[in-house]
């Protein structure tokens, strides 16, 4: 089961308003992240930017694209909070305003069962996952702290399940994961693996 977000701008606006309406004062989500208030504030500005961008003015299009990226980031943060809070309860997830896809009814949804992290020369580590059916892009990520709600992940993307990181700090512990992205934007996360870099 995974949460669906949208790439089309009109759908993004609809989803954004639905999520802010349904999550506010919802007892299932007693302590939503600041992203909820930020999203509520950003949506009207995004709608204005969409209207202005219809003129094809390059500056207006750039402003619209920047605001779209912000909306997507806020929705992703909220979706992650909803998934963690609801622990797989479909009714609770739907009460947030997000849509849900069932894994069984979507055989092309990617998934990652295992992650290998191989240490190389000083400051190098290679992440490796099996090529995933339905996966079109892989985000190889690392963090310099144990994963938590505010962890910053550094991403390097490609179209294969293998990636070599270089320039890492020796004698320091890193946490690694891989995110596979499906054709319809679905995401699946590998387990997190920790290594001390040589």
Structural commentary:
It is built from 4 helices and 10 strands. With 198 residues, the chain is α+β, with helices and mostly antiparallel strands. The chain folds into 2 domains: 2-101; 116-196, Immunoglobulin-like (Sandwich). Strands 5, 6, 8, 9 and 10 form a 5-stranded antiparallel sheet that branches. It has a 3-stranded antiparallel sheet with strand order 3-4-7, with no helix packed on it. The protein has a two-stranded antiparallel ribbon with strand order 1-2. A hairpin with a 4-residue loop joins strand 8 and strand 9 (187-189). Helix 1 runs antiparallel to helix 2 and helix 2 (35-53) packs antiparallel against helix 3 (58-86). The model has no long low-confidence stretch (mean pLDDT 85).
Count of helical segments?
4
Q: What is the count of distinct domains? A: 2
Q: Over the alpha carbons, how many angstroms does the gyration radius reach?
A: 19 Å
Give the termini distance in whole angstroms. 38 Å
Secondary-structure-derived class: alpha+beta
- Low-confidence runs: none
Q: What is the H/E string?
A: EHHHHEEEEEEEEE
Summarize the biggest pleated sheet. Answer: 5 strands, antiparallel
Q: How much of the residues is beta strand, in percent?
A: 15-25%
**Beta-strand segment tally:** 10
- Mean residue pLDDT: 85
Q: Helical amount among residues, as a percent range?
A: 25-40%
- The rough form would be described as globular
